[in-house]
Amino acid sequence: MKAKFDREMIITSKEIPPPPLEDIRVALEKALSENYKEAQVEIVDCPNLTEAPFGLAAPGLGGKTALADVGGVPYLVPGPAKWLERVYNLDHTASQVDIPGALVIGAGAGSKHDVGVNSELIPNIRTRGGENKRRNLTHCSRIDPADDSKSLLLRYEEDLNSADFTLLGNLFFSEGKSSSKVLKVTTKTRTGTEGSIVTCMRKGLAEAFSVPVGMGGTFLQAAGTVKYHVMPEFSACPLDSDDKVNAWLRYFNFEAPFVNMATFISKDPDLDLRVEHTHGYSTVNQTGGHYHYDVTPETIEYVGYFTPAQKIYRIDAPTETHMIGRD
Ligand SMILES: [Zn+2]
């Protein structure tokens, strides 16, 4: 039987050659310093990110890199959600962006075919087809059917034996090599008004560079509390405004430690992109969801590792699009 993701998809792409790493470092440090009391960005050798607290499926973020924006919010809202037809697969996307065996991290929607309900996907997988053994550490977070004020964290491989997702995904691909230099970002105590470290970095790059700069990476919420959302089951009524989307989503304040998988691009090179999307999870607290912003500026602390993307792909873009629900 043909897999649900094995179908014709329109794929477009653009090369986005990154500026020199030192220039990115300076731009990020400037933006973060304006928003956090302590902010440091350094160019470092990539530590082994398979180790705690990060726990990635591959040691580094190096080698060939790419971002992909797969599907899109218009497959979910206004609805009915097109989860039956818009099925994708993490191993398959790695071959679609021509990095077989890639480490894939980022944000997406879990497959209702496998999870049973709509959910948040936190991709973290070394895909098949490369030199290294496949390793799927992807998780998903769903609303607890026994108590809808709680969320449940599931292991995508062990609990569901799946690498599929539906509707949308914002993914960062690398060869997972530890040989490349990366940007280490450390911040402590927020003094500015931008509650999202990802938005802060993205806007800093947009200010510093006229060309689009794409980034991916992982960051630990080392201290403090952050607001996340988890999508509940699909809405019976069409979600035709941001207000309706916000009323439908379930919001949670999750404590540290919590590891996020970030994707962002400073500006959209006319590909109808979602310019940032970050999901994460905590195996310590058994929580997971979509990252919004910290709610404890005095105590928030982050440490993360990021690297630029060389190319941006747009896969299976909706033909009818809108700007609802992209933050
Ligand atoms: Zn999300």
TrEMBL record:
Residue span(s) of domain DUF1907: 27-315
Entry keywords, A to Z: Hydrolase, Metal-binding, Nucleus, Zinc
A GO molecular-function descriptor: zinc ion binding
Compartment(s) where it occurs, according to its Swiss-Prot or TrEMBL record: Nucleus
Keyword Cytoplasm listed: no
Span of the signal peptide: none
Nucleus as UniProt keyword: yes
Any single GO CC term annotated in Swiss-Prot or TrEMBL for this entry: nucleus
Alphabetized InterPro entries for the sequence: C11orf54_DUF1907
A Pfam family recorded for this sequence: DUF1907
Main location: nucleus
SUPFAM superfamilies, per the entry: AF0104/ALDC/Ptd012-like
PANTHER family: ESTER HYDROLASE C11ORF54 (PTHR13204:SF1), PTD012 PROTEIN (PTHR13204)
Subunit structure, interactors included: Monomer.
Protein name as it appears in the record: DUF1907 domain-containing protein
